[in-house]
């Protein structure tokens, strides 16, 4: 079974409560439509093209690079910044009195096409769809969230919380993401090989973050925490989000206990028969202000932290100046809304196989790819 054979096999449309008006207001509202680009890179390119500071742009979430996505963006700028390229378009659609943010997202509407479905898979897939329409699926964060996870050394934020600042910085500077270009992978391998020789590392450094870190370490050896604090805010928040998501996933995994599973970047995904308790449970993201309506989830998280030699109180503390983990509730189990499927049809791309078109709506922060995984087990 294949997903994302083409961008139009994975369409995402954002639903928000942003009030768009025709009368002039401080923020212009745009529709960003894109394929093959992530949100941050597309907006950075637009900001450079239009010579507008990126800080003037605001959006709600990073939409999938490998899909055809539509999302709202606000810009605090008087001129119309509309433009069109082969990969993305940025179209002005009105004004708003407030900027776009993640708080404005209500849901995401998905239109997916599953392809190359063999005859033997069809009955199982049909039964799985009916099951998920009634029972839902576990609301794990999917692999897209864990691009900064180093399978060998772990999460940089976990090292920070443990006070292992050099290890945290080493992961941040030398881990190669699977999708990185060859040049970046070779450079990071060289940095790892020369780690500790800050002059040699500075010679290899290419990015602004790398250069800042090694210049600082040359002047102040041992200033690993200070070096980490020079990372871009967006990068730091991404690392924090990845670690929070990992702890949350591990909590849900242990609450489910047993069932069929699929491998994941930062741990397996276990799918089991949901209890009414799990279907109604909310598990907070670990962090400041977290509250556990169900004490069992809190006890499980404490156990996970003990294994990592961390105390719950550390989640309430500031990690770096102005950077902390913030707790917020998240449903353990999700039931897709407005679910539609026409049923299996001949696949025009893969003769002899079938395809399945699905349309459904998920609350913000939920992964459609996780629902597809639930169909596969």
- Helix and strand run: EEHEEEEEHEHHHHHHHEEHEHEEEEEEH
Q: Percent range for helical residues?
A: 25-40%
Share in β-strands: 15-25%
Mean pLDDT: 95
| Basic shape | globular
Count of helix runs: 12
Radius of gyration in whole Å, from Cα? Answer: 22 Å
Q: What is the terminal-to-terminal distance?
A: 12 Å
Structural features, described:
- The chain has twelve helices and 17 strands.
- With 377 residues, it is α+β, with helices and mostly antiparallel strands.
- It folds into four domains: 19-99, Alpha-Beta Plaits; 108-136 and 335-376, Alpha-Beta Plaits (2-Layer Sandwich), CATH 3.30.70; 156-234, Hypothetical Protein Yqey, Chain: A, domain1; 239-333, no CATH class.
- The strands form five sheets. Strands 1, 2, 3, 4, 5, 6, 7, 16 and 17 form a nine-stranded mixed sheet that branches.
- It is globular and about 65 Å long.
- The mean pLDDT is 95.
């Amino acid at each position: 079974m294949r997903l994302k054979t083409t961008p139009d096999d994975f369409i995402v449309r954002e639903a928000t409560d942003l009030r768009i008006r025709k009368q002039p207001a401080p923020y212009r509202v745009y529709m960003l439509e894109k394929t093959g680009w992530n949100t941050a890179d597309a907006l950075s390119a637009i900001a450079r093209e239009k010579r507008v500071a990126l800080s003037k742009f605001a959006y709600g979430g990073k939409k999938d690079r490998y899909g055809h996505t539509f999302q709202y963006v606000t810009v605090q700028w008087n001129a119309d910044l509309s433009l069109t390229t082969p990969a993305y378009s940025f179209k002005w659609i009105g004004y708003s009195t407030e900027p776009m943010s993640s708080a404005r997202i209500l849901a995401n509407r998905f239109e997916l096409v599953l392809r190359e479905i063999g005859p033997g898979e069809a009955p199982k897939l049909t039964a799985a769809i009916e099951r998920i329409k009634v029972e839902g699926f576990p609301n794990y964060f999917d692999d897209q969230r864990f691009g900064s996870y180093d399978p060998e050394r772990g999460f940089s934020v976990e090292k920070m919380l443990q006070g292992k600042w050099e290890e945290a910085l080493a992961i941040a500077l030398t881990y190669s993401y699977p999708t990185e270009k060859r040049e970046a992978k070779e450079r990071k391998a060289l940095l790892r090989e020369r780690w500790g020789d800050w002059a040699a590392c500075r010679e290899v450094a290419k990015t602004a973050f790398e250069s800042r870190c090694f210049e600082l370490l040359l002047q102040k050896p041992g200033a690993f925490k200070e070096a980490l604090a020079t990372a871009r805010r967006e990068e730091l928040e991404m690392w924090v989000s990845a670690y929070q998501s990992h702890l949350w996933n591990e909590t849900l995994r242990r609450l489910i206990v047993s069932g069929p599973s699929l491998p994941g970047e930062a741990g397996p995904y276990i799918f089991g028969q949901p209890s009414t308790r799990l279907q109604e449970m909310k598990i907070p993201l670990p962090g400041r202000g977290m509250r556990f309506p169900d004490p069992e989830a809190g006890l499980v998280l404490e156990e996970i932290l003990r294994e990592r030699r961390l105390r719950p109180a550390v989640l309430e503390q500031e990690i770096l100046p102005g950077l902390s983990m913030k707790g917020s509730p998240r449903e353990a189990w999700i039931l897709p809304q407005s679910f539609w499927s026409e049923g299996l049809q001949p696949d025009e791309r893969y003769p002899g196989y079938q395809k399945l078109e699905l349309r459904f709506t998920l609350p913000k922060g939920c992964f459609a790819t996780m629902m597809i995984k639930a169909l596969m087990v």
